[in-house]
Amino acid sequence: KGVSPDEITFITFTREAARNMRGRLSDSEKEDVHLKKEAQPSLICTMHSLGQRIIAECPEQFGLRDEFRPVDSKVMRQILF
User: Fold this and answer.
1) What residues contact 30, with CB distance under 8 A and at least 6 apart?
2) In DSSP terms, which residues pair with 10 in a beta bridge?
3) Closest CA to 55 of 45, 42, 66
4) What 3-state class would DSSP assign to 27?
5) What is the DSSP code (8-state) at residue 71?
6) CA distances from 73 to 15, 22, 60, 76 (A)
7) Which residues face 9 on adjacent strands?
8) In the chain, which ranges are E strands?
9) What is the rounded CA–CA span in Å between residue 29 and residue 41?
10) Residues 40-50: what's their mean pLDDT?
11) What is the mean pLDDT of residues 3-27?
12) In the list 4, 42, 68, 77, which could disulfide-bond 64, CB 3.0-4.6 Å?
């Protein structure tokens, strides 16, 4: 409908849902949702990875250093428990 795929972001809650969405868009047998590769949104991600992307683009605006990185769940459990 005249919108560039780069202007569209699909946001899911889980990585599995993001993978599923990519698969459905690429599956030519699913005519109701299939899109040619060049028409697919370049950003299909979880809400958490989108947040991380936004923070990574300008960490200083969030009071973070350039080399910030999220704490993985294993380390988080060690900190909390």
Assistant:
1) 24
2) 44
3) 66
4) coil
5) P
6) 15, 25, 24, 5
7) 43
8) 9-12, 43-46
9) 19
10) 92
11) 92
12) 68
> Nearest-5° angle of CA 30, CA 36, CA 42?
110
Dig out the tokens for 38 from the structure.
């060049």
**Cα(56)–Cα(65) distance, integer angstroms:** 10
Least Cα distance to 50 among 79, 74, 70 occurs for 70
H helix or E strand, kind and range, residue 79: helix 73-80
Strands 43-46 and 9-12: parallel
Identify the pLDDT of residue 45: 95
Identify any residues that bridge with 46 across adjacent strands, giving them in sequence order.
12
**What is the Cα–Cα distance from 71 to 73, expressed in whole angstroms?**
7
